[in-house]
Amino acid sequence: SQDNFLFNMSIKDNIKMGNPNATDAEVVAAAKAACCDEFICKLQHGYDTMAGDAGRNLSGGERQRITIARAILKKADVVILDEASAHADPENEVYIEEAIHELVKGKTLIVVAHRLSTIEDADKIVVIDSGNIVGEGTQNELLMSCSVYARMWQENKEALSEGKGGGACV
């Protein structure tokens, strides 16, 4: 979700919401896969640190990585991500992308993204314009065959070069 939500409980318990029967070792393994073990271990109480109401004791990128660790424990066959790195600063975005890479191994991934760089390596991209599918294919196929996607890709590149973070949505 764009609004990653943590409950006012320990970070460990927030992660375990993905699988309440997970062992502490499984929680740590999920946190490592989600690139959040290192910062969690630096917190005053480590995994027993309270996240605070809605996760207010953590940055947006840290909250996002914890929710990815939760999703890793869930072991779902299909993962839907809605603007997974939308609230992340550039440093956290790198960690989030690494975490997502771990999360989606062997799974079907559906992504809603404004930052087209998030999806450029997808096996299949579906372009929707005004509620209609106007293109499907790989990045290269769409750049050659779908004017809507080609325009969005160009706008995205220009926005990134201007430091605006991209604005096209697929």
Fold and architecture overview:
This protein has 170 residues and is α+β, with helices and mostly antiparallel strands. The protein contains seven helices and four strands. The protein has helices spanning 11-16, 24-33, 37-42, 60-74, 90-103, 139-145, 147-161, and strands at 78-82, 108-112, 125-129, 132-137. The strands form two sheets. It has a two-stranded parallel sheet. Strands 3-4 form a two-stranded antiparallel sheet. The chain is elongated, with a radius of gyration of 17 Å. It starts with 10 loop residues before the first helix and ends in a 9-residue tail after the last helix. The model is unreliable at 165-170 (pLDDT under 50).
Chart the SSEs and their pairings:
Blueprint: H1 11-16, H2 24-33, H3 37-42, H4 60-74, E1 78-82, H5 90-103, E2 108-112, E3 125-129, E4 132-137, H6 139-145, H7 147-161
Parallel strand pairs: 1-2
Antiparallel strand pairs: 3-4
Helix pairs in contact: 2-4, 4-5, 6-7
List keywords for this structure.
alpha+beta, 170 residues, disordered C terminus, two-stranded parallel sheet, 4 strands, two-stranded antiparallel sheet, 7 helices
Short description:
The protein is an alpha+beta fold and 170 residues long. The protein contains 7 helices and 4 strands. The protein is elongated, with a radius of gyration of 17 Å.
